[in-house]
Amino acid sequence: MTAHIHRVGIVAKGGLLAASEHLVRLGAWLRERHIEPVYETATALLMPTAGTQANRSREDLPNDVDLIIVLGGDGTLLAMADRTAQAGRDIPILGVNFGSLGFLTETRIDESYASLAAILDGTATLDERAMLNATGYRDGVVFDTRIVLNDVVFTKAALSRIIELVVSVSTGEVTRVKADGLIVASATGSTAYNLAAGGPIVHPRVDAIVLTPIAPHTLTHRPIVIPGSEVVEVRPHIEGDVDEIYVTYDGQSGYPLRQGDVITVRRSERTLRLVKTPARSYFEVLREKLKWGERGGRA
Asked: Is residue 46 part of a domain?
């Protein structure tokens, strides 16, 4: 990675008061190296010097910086990854976790300055993560477009009965899913909601899209991994006011669907450039998060 870093965006999880001291220290560290820190607006309010720091909204921040540091968890990083992709910027993100290790925010606080130093001297390794492009059609006209890192999820309302979705790919219809919902996940997203719903773990370097039904009505509906080159098309089957089907993007936002709506999901041209921590591999993160190899209680 060649470093041309002049301004660094800093984003902390909302209300994360524990980050206040680190935000101040991080800003000082950057200024010592003649780099301007730019804080996300809500993040700046966590600091003792709130109101005196350069700040931007989450939407505007990607347009004004060369690197983004996220302090928090995977959800905070997801939100910034999606905004960075929507802004059309190809800038790296360094995820620093608070609390338990994240699949995306895998750098610990005590490792963050070494990672930053590696970025600045051009020796850091970037992990390119594929993203998904979702397009919503209503009456044949595009009404919504999103870029997501993890998943596009179709779910029922709390009191709705089982929903029905017609799922097709480029080469034809795949199935009609009768379930509580459906997850369309990237390889990176395979360790998120997809994993909790019983879907497979897919290594992030595998070019694939995962289709995982949520609590399917029949046991024959199983998760399936398809080539990343496919275009997935999901058509909700909605009967009157009885069914309510929602689509959500990376767990961040979404909306209800109508009969006749179509959502297509395909591999995006954009990727997330995630700064890798040399201290651990992808499989080490999996082992720690999923507690592989740990024994149960001993006699």
From this structure: yes
Residues 152 and 239 in one domain: yes
- Asked if 43 and 61 count as a contact pair (C-beta separation under 8 A), the reply is no
Q: Distances in Å between the alpha carbon of 248 and those of 118, 152, 255, 256, 298?
A: 36, 6, 7, 9, 43
Contact (Cβ atoms closer than 8 angstroms) between residue 196 and residue 284: no
User: Which residue range is the domain that position 258 belongs to?
Assistant: 131-269
User: What is the full per-residue pLDDT of the chain (299 aa) written as tens digits?
Assistant: 545 899 999 999 988 888 889 999 999 999 999 999 999 999 999 988 766 678 899 999 999 999 999 998 889 999 999 999 999 998 999 999 876 667 888 888 888 999 999 999 989 989 999 999 999 999 999 999 999 999 999 998 766 678 899 999 988 888 899 999 999 999 999 999 999 999 999 999 999 999 999 999 888 889 999 999 999 999 998 876 656 899 999 999 999 999 999 999 999 999 999 998 777 788 888 888 887 876 654 44
The residues with which 8 forms a beta bridge, in sequence order, are 37, 67
Both 138 and 230 in one domain: the answer is yes
In three-state secondary structure terms, 11 is: strand
Number of domains in the chain: 2
| Residues assigned a catalytic role | 74
182 and 264 in a single domain? The answer is yes
**Position 77 in a domain:** yes
| Angstrom distance (rounded) from CA 29 to CA 60 | 23
Rounded Cα gap, residues 210 and 150, in angstroms: 10
- 261 and 136 in contact (C-beta within 8 Å)? yes
How many beta carbons lie within 10 A of that of residue 254, not counting itself? 17
